[in-house]
Amino acid sequence: MIFYTSDLHFGHANAIKFDERPFTDVDDMAEGMIHNWNSRVGKNDTVYILGDFCFKLKDPEPILARLKGRKHLIIGNHDQVLSLIHISEPTRLQLIS
Questions:
Q1: pLDDT tens, 66-93?
Q2: For residue 28, what pLDDT is reported?
Q3: How confident is the model at residue 57 (pLDDT cuts 50, 70, 90)?
Q4: Which residue in 24, 34, 68, 78 has its CB near the most CB atoms, within 10 A?
Q5: Which 3-state string (H, E, C) describes the chain?
Q6: Do residues 73 and 82 make contact, with C-beta atoms less than 8 angstroms apart?
Q7: Are the C-beta atoms of residues 53 and 75 closer than 8 Å to each other?
């Protein structure tokens, strides 16, 4: 199956308030979104992330490692950290700029 998503904003505390997300803090949001993602996406599915995967995360790799599927990220304005880090397993995420 192929999935499309955008504007996940992992690590973005203000997204909880601005988007009226039902989470208490960024850790609660991350756990909830990882659970929701993995309840729909299988390990062989393809997911296109149309920008803004994360915001102000020093290391998004632990979250990426927990998300099922083959992920392709089109870099958004909040995803600069992803273009600067070295993903230890290149199969975990393909960056599209």
A1: 999 998 888 776 666 565 455 555 555 6
A2: 97
A3: confident
A4: 78
A5: CEEEECCCCECCHHHHHHCCCCCCCHHHHHHHHHHHHHHHCCCCCEEEECCCCECCCCCCHHHHHHCCCEEEEECCCCCHHHHHCCCCCHHHEEEEC
A6: yes
A7: no
